[in-house]
Design a protein that fits this description.
By secondary structure, the chain is mostly helical. 70% of the residues lie in helices and 0% in strands. The chain is globular and about 65 Å long.
């Protein structure tokens, strides 16, 4: 358990994750430090989520591509395979983004306890999120659906132009403006709502309250949040797609890269690729998810002085007391010049259930 100072107050250790506003590099380092602090808990949850995501992606891949696999390569088969590969890549991207968001909600309590040096186990992590499990799934899904809707809205004129056999110039113009606008709007929406996942778990918010709260926390810090997530994504892509998957890619080339590979070898090749993706993503997903959770904590420290506030509160005696520390407080009301002085010390503000 965490050490307590005078009056039974929390004493943050900050050895693994700093208990103060963090720079971008400190958030990236803190996500790695959290994995090293509780490797069994973090990697155990990551393996479970990665397995579900990658097996689901492999099943989709088999039905999109596996049944079309053939020893001959014709233009029609190749074109069909390219379309299937593009669809599959989009499905895997959505599944991976959902897995990262869900894992960010699971890791938020782990990182919070790590800040105070509290013991954390896989059972404790499950206990922290069990009551919010369903809402966590729905919140992650809402963020993904809202981002995809933001992508689809500007592209809709392009789709209508294709479906209505409009003039080619109209289709080209709608694509030139619609696709970049859709991508930009999707990124904007995702960054705006990404902090709703740790908010739901740490503040015991409802889904709507967590989404509104995420928008407030992102206000004025969108670009910083975007830059941090972009750096984390680049690290994840490099490690997940290249460094950790190289042995499995070489094994695929050795066993299934010959000219004799055909439809009978699609399933074992896909199985080997699935194992490689599970291993690589189990290692890198906690990094992305941890950065999201730390972004939420850093934003609360900068915007609300959460680090100073928590340092003045009594040490929690149970799980519910621990999460009550993270519920937002309203600032103390200004003192009445004709009345008694108001308390302005951190932690003296009254509690409120919703932000």
């Amino acid at each position: 358990m965490a050490e307590a100072g005078g009056g039974g107050r929390l004493v943050p250790r900050g050895s693994a994750v700093p208990f103060r506003p963090m720079s971008i590099s400190e958030m990236l380092d803190g996500a790695i430090a959290a994995i090293r602090y509780s490797p069994r808990t973090v990697l155990g949850m990551s393996v479970a989520i990665s397995t579900v995501v990658q097996v689901t992606g492999s099943v989709v891949a088999y039905y999109f591509i596996g049944r079309q696999a053939s020893g001959e390569v014709t233009p029609r088969v190749l074109l069909r395979s390219v379309g299937a590969q593009a669809t599959l890549a989009a499905v895997e991207l959505v599944l991976t983004a959902f897995g990262i968001l869900f894992l960010a909600g699971l890791l938020a309590p782990v990182l919070a306890r790590t800040m105070f040096g509290l013991d954390i186990s896989l059972g404790q992590a499950w206990s922290d999120v069990r009551a919010r499990f369903g809402r966590l799934l729905l919140t992650a899904a809402v963020v993904i659906v809202a981002s995809l809707a933001a992508l689809a809205l500007p592209i809709l004129p392009f789709g209508l132009a294709l479906a209505g056999n409009a003039h080619p110039a109209l289709g080209v113009l709608s694509a030139m403006f619609g696709i970049p606008a859709g991508l930009a709007l999707m990124v904007w929406m995702y960054v705006l709502l990404v902090q709703s996942v740790p908010t739901l778990v740490m503040e015991r918010q409802g889904i709507g309250g967590a989404l509104v709260r995420a928008r407030r926390l992102s206000k004025g810090r969108w670009w910083r949040t975007f830059g941090t997530l972009l750096l984390a994504m680049l690290v994840t892509v490099f490690m997940g797609f290249f460094a950790l998957r190289i042995p499995f890619l070489l094994a695929q080339l050795v066993f299934f890269g010959g000219s004799g590979s055909g439809s009978d070898q699609v399933l074992p090749a896909l199985a080997l690729d699935t194992v490689g993706r599970i291993v690589s993503w189990s290692v890198v997903l906690p990094f992305d998810a941890g950065v999201i959770a730390l972004l939420y904590m850093d934003r609360r420290m900068r915007r609300e002085g959460l680090d100073l506030d928590l340092a003045t509160r009594p040490a929690p005696e149970g799980d519910e007391d621990f999460f009550s520390l993270w519920r937002p407080t309203a600032p103390a009301r200004p003192a009445d010049p004709y009345g008694p002085p108001a308390a302005h010390a951190p932690g003296a503000a009254y509690r409120q259930g919703t932000p």
